[in-house]
Design goal:
The complex is a heterotetramer, with 2 copies of chain A (325 residues), 1 copy of chain B (302 residues) and 1 copy of chain C (502 residues). Chain A has 325 residues and is mainly alpha-helical. In chain A, 69% of the residues lie in helices and 3% in strands. A two-stranded antiparallel ribbon of chain A has the order 1-4. In chain A, a hairpin with a 2-residue loop joins strand 2 and strand 3. Chain B is an alpha/beta fold and 302 residues long. Chain B starts with a strand and ends in a 15-residue tail after the last strand. Classes of the chains: A mainly alpha (325), B alpha/beta (302), C alpha/beta (502). Bound molecules: adenosine-5'-triphosphate (2 copies) and magnesium ion (MG) (2 copies).
Chain lengths: 325, 302, 502, 325
């Protein structure tokens, strides 16, 4: 029953520190204090940077997932698409080496491929009307398989080590992936919360029929959401492939889909559409990264890490006490 | 008319670099054997979990195979089905991970996981001169990983001056190992050396160390014998002095063993027994700068 | 300008999966005219309106807009200035009022939303429909059904429109809001807007409309100026037979008390100190304006809303209900106000919807007896005249009034001690309405008791033995006998006459 | 627009061979003819038995998943719960060896644990109101971790080889797992389609609020759905553990959740609740098994298997052209 729903939404600068929206900030704070009190190294600036860094590539994908989920769909293919686009980028880069624009060229190509693949997935869902879960389960399987095929089961290795600058470089002490993450997050925030398109995503996800009555091109909106997911995957693939200067056809991106969806859901995005926010997703990813970091910092036994992680995630959600099936 | 043979090869799906290598080597051996002998056909299958592998072996049996080369997902789960296959007269070569009962296979060909761990421990002690603080980046929580880590700890425990600061998992994956190492570097101000249970993990961890510009870490080594790592050793990378082999090519050898066995040929002409040895344990070898060239296969995927 | 034909349907037919529901319908909408469309449930009114509003395409026939043939879709309709307020409200619950009002038509600067501009104009529009106290940034899910209806209507004053189609706008409104609505309609009419008005309340049709078209079984049976026909005649045309519109006789005997509520108060303050008694075999009406807290009172009674204070006695025993499930065990069932979100299971069939609460009656040895279930449902379909192709039809594809009948049928089958009915006849045509009144009376005679919350004043007056009037969450009067009349109720409901020391 | 909702559902004995409901049968037929024409071994009775046998353990879990999904929720924990319950059964069996009732005893214990775990997961969702996706993602992590912990990363090995009779045995030429699958399927069919409880599951999934107003104890219904999922997992765990006579703590059950959900969705169950059938799910599982079997029979390259699988699954769904997000 939604009787006890809060009555007015916090707007603009009005901040209710204990409102649902800020629970995740509290969760982050509590986890941090806990970790820091056991292992002071947790609070080192470099470690905090590392946490953001480790959030970056999943974070960007989770932002894409948020668009899709707000529009009432789901994308399971992001993990294997990361490997696929990453592989394509490395291949393109190696082909273009010597032309002088091999790095931007390969990236542009990869981003194009990512958007195109997302768009195609979107068409599968909207035009051919395959349920999103199955459509993207199918493409997940297909992208992984094509990647394995292209790499013969091995890895794609870039010939130019200077490519690692993107994934490993820093700008004024801040890792470039973190900067990319923030910039991407802000752009996504503007798009989702401050443009008619973003508004339409919510409408489509919450009530497809109303959206249709309001003369919104539902199929177009949803297809574009998938294209955005493809774009996010491509940006993330740039980071991932440049970080290690290579892409493994078998393991890169494994399980990203679950992490991305989990981050979005922790951040308040509903699996049934119409609810969600970029800030929530970003905080959700950070919560997941903090947990990962903390488990290592506190030297939790590898066998029990899953228990700790599970308990923390459930507790974090419990603190929000929200329900949408 | 010559007799034709069908050989089934069942291995786990590639969930990290080493298993990727296994598939590559299996395909290489299959290709080479088929070129040599058109009467041989092969079916290669990969499984994500033990029950899927059991199902695949069943299907292979129905399809009709003369020999089965099986790299079991886990030893226990695959024992009953291997036994069943053998009862039907299929020649079973069990690779890498043992089966529970000797009645389940004709030939067992494997690397030595506890031995690998022990060897890593000995090398670590030697390279450190018996003194220092180390961290271990272990692999996926599985039997193999446990055996390696236990072997390693067994040796290190004999050196009171070597302290294991932490054992954390990198899941045998590069990006996960990178993140784990990054965090450990923050936690410990002084680390003398790192052992990664796998060469993929080593590359990830090494990247993290380089990035943090840590001077205190003298070296890091892994296990497996991945070509990039062998190349680094060959080129004299100061951070990576050695690695320990655990070759994915063992699958290729096993396929050859199976072929020899069903054709009733000895292992090699100079081998005076007609039948294949029932157990072959591959020794772990230390790859160092001197011998690295012999372990380098540039066109392999691993 | 006036009297010029704006929109015109010619020979319109509509099939749903091969079944024709509209046959060769001709209809004209003229500028500055209110065109009433009436007919039984399932006659095809909404289908016709949806076709004119551009959300459905006719199977055959043409639509002319200002003389030119057009093919409509939602976007085209909007561009032409056609606004449809559908019967089943189509607001996006999770978005706020202003976001809904401007959905698909956002005010933007470059690529970005202009929030403040939208909120400002939205506030003015809400003011025009009498929702001045509501913040345009409130999420729609927090509004009452009636408020949502008004929000939909407010779109009409925001945009420049030529055609306004209102599909049963007054089903949830009380006299007060209806007056506001009529003011809006008259204003738009003066502006030369062509308005289609669907309603089952013939009195309203007589009052506001200039022209009336009667549909029966998908065909136009009559189309004439309103002055030319009397209410009874319209009713006869709709149903195809003369109708008795007299209410069944009331109960004059007073039995023992079955339910007593003392000082019921909720945490959210929507219900304050509500006390009343209900006797066995009695029909107790609840009247009041939108937002007077009648629905909340029922919800609080059932434990769907948190109670802060208050005692409830059922047959003298103190009870505390925390869910409809417990209520049912005690013999109390509730008909929710909003059928779409709280009543129906849209993706299930008529059969599954109707039998939902009485499955135990068709269960033999733990298993469902499908034949018995079907015959039970068929009986209800027949007696409530639910128009469906088969009892396996999804309720999603029923007409609004027939959906209401489905929910009602489910409740009626349970035969508990006490019914709480919230807007039971919302959207139901007059023919069936009187059957339902008769049914309620029959049950009451057998000793079942009723609480009827209704915004339809003639219904409250004609049906109920006693009437409780609520305002601002408080009971302001309890009327009996000859004091039950529309005037008296309105005086109390609007606060012109103060409560009698309750 | 969903206005053109189909009007009548096929009822009772009336069979429309081309209706949506039977599309999966056609898919199965076409796949079989295709496989048989390339590899005649496909049609061997033994192979068809194998396909059913391979369907059995995922199938039973998918039936459990159908209950949960019809009730509008989701259960991601089934895979790791399989390992957990399997492990528990083996431990119990080894403890009880010598008592004479060690096999039935261990099975009864495992089934009890399975139901209890499912029930607890259900309480997490209904009473503590954690969104199903996160609640079961958490328990998935927790069960796997506890299993690893109990086995120290290794495997649970039963001491009594006669236990394999259940998983490997046959009765009149039919593998026992297949018999169990059929019996379980029929029981589930009766429960879902012929009891008030089954009807309540649909109601809760179709519209939680309406179900609540219609005096259905929504929380109880949904909790029981999870308990049924736990029961199904336990039955499946019996088959898996006895088939293998051991349970691997790290890999047993890996990915079962995705297979089970995919089977249910292919069979027409909606992820948003209120739709689904046991027969559909069973056919869905069989489709998946046939694909798996076919890939081996036709000797499809390992790298391209994923592509073939993905394409077939998407095509199968396309043939049904249904949409629910
Ligand atoms: N999407 C649909 N699919 C199938 N049949 C439909 C659909 N929509 C409406 N119908 C059928 O068309 C007929 C006319 O329905 P319509 O909604 O136009 O009736 P109405 O006159 O508005 O009735 P009410 O007074 O109850 O609102 C009904 O018999 C209904 O069952
Ligand atoms: N002034 C108000 N501001 C905001 N919300 C209001 C206001 N008045 C009422 N509501 C909303 O109205 C809803 C219930 O009131 P409702 O109108 O249903 O009462 P009612 O007396 O049953 O009237 P009716 O049944 O005629 O709609 C509540 O959910 C509440 O959020
Ligand atoms: Mg209607
Ligand atoms: Mg009300």
């Amino acid at each position: 029953m939604s009787d006890e729903v809060q009555v007015s939404r916090s707007r603009g600068l009005q901040i209710h520190l204990f409102s649902e929206k800020y629970v995740l900030l509290w969760v982050i704070l509590i986890l941090s204090v806990l970790s820091a009190s056991i292992s002071p190294a947790f609070l080192k600036l470099q470690n905090l940077m590392n946490i953001l860094w480790q959030s970056s590539f999943i974070g960007i994908i989770a932002i894409g997932a948020t668009f899709v989920m707000v529009a009432g769909a789901i994308d399971l293919s992001v993990g294997s698409l990361t490997a696929f686009v990453g592989g394509i980028i490395v291949i393109a880069l190696n082909r273009l080496v010597g032309t002088g624009f091999h790095i931007p060229g390969a990236i542009a190509f990869g981003v194009g491929v990512g958007i195109a693949m997302g768009y195609l997935t979107g068409l599968l869902v909207t035009k051919l009307r395959v349920v999103p879960f199955i459509a993207t389960l199918g493409t997940m399987s297909i992208f992984r398989s094509l990647t394995l095929y292209l790499a013969n089961g091995g890895e794609f290795r870039s010939l130019d080590w200077s490519y690692t600058v993107i994934g490993m470089g820093e700008l004024a002490g801040v890792p470039i992936p973190v900067i990319l993450f923030l910039v991407y997050g802000v752009a996504a925030w503007i798009l989702l919360h401050n443009t008619p398109f973003g508004r339409h995503l919510y409408a489509v996800g919450a009530n497809e029929r109303s959206a249709r009555y309001a003369a919104i091109d539902v199929d177009r909106v949803r297809t574009l959401a998938y294209a955005l997911s493809g774009l996010s995957v491509a940006v993330s693939a740039v980071i991932v492939s440049s970080m290690l200067n290579s892409v493994s056809s078998s393991t890169t991106g494994l399980g990203f889909e679950l992490d991305a969806i989990a981050a979005a859901v922790i951040g308040g995005t509903s699996l049934s559409g119409g609810r969600g926010s970029i800030l929530g997703t970003v905080l959700g990813v950070i919560v997941l990264s903090i947990i990962g970091n903390m488990l290592v910092m506190l030297n939790v036994s590898v066998y029990l890490q899953g228990t700790v992680k599970g308990v923390i995630i459930v507790t974090a959600i419990l603190a929000q006490r929200r329900r949408t099936s | 008319q010559e007799k034709t043979y069908h050989i089934g090869v069942a291995v786990p799906a590639a969930d990290h670099g080493w298993t990727g290598g296994v598939i590559w080597w299996a395909q290489k051996a299959i290709r080479e054997w088929q070129e040599r002998d058109p009467n041989l056909t092969f079916t290669l299958v990969t499984a994500h979990n033990p029950s899927e592998q059991v199902a695949q072996v069943k299907t292979l049996m129905t399809k009709g195979i003369d020999a089965l080369v099986l790299l079991p997902h886990e030893s226990g789960p695959l024992t009953p089905i291997a036994e069943e296959a053998r009862k039907k007269g299929i020649f079973v070569v069990c690779v890498d991970r043992g089966l529970l009962r000797e009645t389940a296979y004709d030939v067992y060909l494997a690397g030595d996981n506890p031995g690998l761990g022990r060897m890593a421990g000995e090398q670590m002690a030697k390279l450190l001169g018996g003194k220092g603080k180390i961290v271990v980046i272990e692999g996926l929580p599985t039997q193999i990983n446990t055996e390696r880590v236990e072997g390693f700890k067994e040796i290190i425990s004999q050196y009171p001056d070597i302290e294991i600061l932490a054992i954390q998992t990198g899941y045998w994956q590069r990006d996960k190992s990178f993140a784990t190492m990054q965090t450990l570097l923050q936690k410990f101000d002084r680390i003398d050396a790192v052992w990664a249970g796998d060469d993929d993990a080593l590359l990830g961890a090494l990247q993290a160390i380089k990035l943090a510009k840590r001077q205190d870490i003298k070296f890091i080594f892994g296990a497996g014998g991945m070509k990039e790592v062998v190349k680094m050793i060959m080129d004299g990378d100061p951070m990576v002095p050695i690695t320990i082999t655990y070759p994915p090519s063992m699958i290729a050898s096993s396929i050859s063993v199976a072929v020899k066995a069903i054709k009733n040929e000895p292992l090699f002409p100079e081998f005076y027994q007609n039948s294949i040895p029932s157990k072959i344990i591959l020794a772990c070898e230390v790859v160092n700068r001197e011998n690295a060239a012999r372990y380098y296969f540039p066109d392999s995927v691993y | 300008m006036k009297d010029a034909v704006v929109i015109q349907g010619r020979g319109i037919c509509k099939d749903f999966s091969g079944v024709r529901v509209l046959f060769d319908v001709d209809i004209d909408g003229r500028a500055g005219e209110v065109h009433g469309v009436v007919g039984e449930n399932g006659a095809g009114k909404s289908t016709l309106m949806n076709i004119l509003g551009g959300v459905l395409n006719p199977t055959e026939g043409q639509i002319f807009f200002r003389g030119k043939e057009v093919t409509l879709n939602p976007k085209k309709a909007r561009d032409l200035g056609i606004l449809l307020v559908p019967q089943e409200l189509n607001l996006v619950e999770t978005l706020s009022i202003y976001e809904n009002v401007f959905l698909g038509n956002e005010i933007k600067k470059f690529f970005f939303l202009e929030r403040d501009a939208m909120i400002d104009s939205c506030r003015r529009a809400l003011h025009a429909v009498g929702l001045d106290t509501v913040d345009p940034a409130t999420p729609v899910e927090k509004l009452s059904t009636a408020q949502k209806q008004l929000v939909e209507i407010s779109k009409a004053v925001l945009q420049r429109i030529d055609v306004l189609i209102l599909d049963e706008p007054t089903a949830t409104l009380t006299e007060h809001e209806i007056e506001i609505l009529f003011r809006v309609i008259r204003y738009l009419k003066e502006q030369g807007v062509c308005i289609f008005y669907v309603s089952h309340r013939l009195r309203e049709v007589k009052e506001i409309c200039d022209w009336v078209t009667v549909l029966r079984d998908g065909r136009v049976v009559s189309s004439c100026a309103v002055e030319e026909v009397r209410e009874e005649e319209i009713a006869r045309l709709m149903v195809g037979r003369p109708l008795s519109t007299v209410f069944p006789p009331k109960n004059t005997r007073r039995n023992e008390t079955i339910l007593e509520v003392k000082g019921l108060t909720t945490f959210d303050g929507r219900v304050k100190e509500v006390s009343f008694v209900l006797h066995r075999g009695e029909v107790l009406g609840f009247a009041g304006l939108v937002g007077s807290g009648r629905t909340e009172m029922a919800e609080a009674l059932l434990g769907l809303r948190r109670r802060r204070a208050g005692e409830i006695f059922l047959e003298g025993r103190k009870i505390s209900i925390s869910s409809p499930w417990e209520a049912k065990r005690l013999g109390i069932v509730y008909l929710p106000e909003e059928r779409k979100s709280s009543g129906l299971l849209m993706s299930l069939s008529v059969r599954e919807n109707v039998s939902l609460m009485v499955l135990n009656r068709v269960t033999r040895f733990l298993l469902l007896h499908h034949k018995e279930e079907r015959s039970l449902v068929r009986r209800d379909v027949e007696r409530l005249r639910i128009r469906c192709k088969s009892i396996e039809q999804y309720v999603e594809s029923l007409s609004g009034g027939n959906q209401q009948k489905v929910v009602l049928a489910r409740l009626i089958e349970t035969q508990p001690k006490l019914y709480i009915l919230d807007e039971p006849t919302r959207g139901i045509d007059i023919g069936t309405k009187h059957y339902i009144y008769q049914l309620i009376r029959d049950f009451a005679k057998e000793g079942l008791s009723f609480i009827v919350i209704s915004s339809d004043l003639p219904e409250v007056v004609g049906l109920c033995d006693r009437v409780v009037v609520m305002r601002d969450g408080k009971v302001v009067a309890t009327l009996e006998n000859e004091r039950i009349n529309e005037e008296e109720i309105i005086l109390y409901a609007t606060g012109i006459r103060e409560g009698e020391g309750m």
